[in-house]
Amino acid sequence: MDKPLPGLPMEEIFAMARQALADSPLPFFYYGRALTWAIAKYYMTPIEEDGELIAPYTRLFHKPAVKDCLHPFGCYVEYESVFGFKYVGLFLCVWMGTLCNQDPSGYIIMDIRTSIVKHVPEVKFLTTERPPDPSSY
Length: 137
Description:
Shape: globular
Strand content: 15-25%
Order of helices and strands: HHEEHEEEEE
Distance between the termini: 54 Å
Strand order of the largest sheet: 6-5-4-3-7
Radius of gyration: 16 Å
Number of domains: 1
Helix content: 10-25%
């Protein structure tokens, strides 16, 4: 029989969300999204158990962990609109799962130019700390 999952360490989760938000370019208004990201990251991060690394999510649902939530909260992403134009946005909460109530699940991002929060199906994670100039698109 499987061992029960450890309880969610809420103090650790709150601290992780506060630190992620402080490290991001986003205002405190997005603390709720940072908290959602921190919980997802906690459940998707593999931990050592009986000599092997396994994520709590995998133990619970018998599915592979979603690695997108391991990206930093507030990192820059690029997404393509339905019209084919590319925009640069802020990555807010990578893993949506069933929280998005969409099939397929997607990403929540904030467009830098308009400050509009959007749900998009796919993003490309940028490795630079600063986004490219939006006027270059």
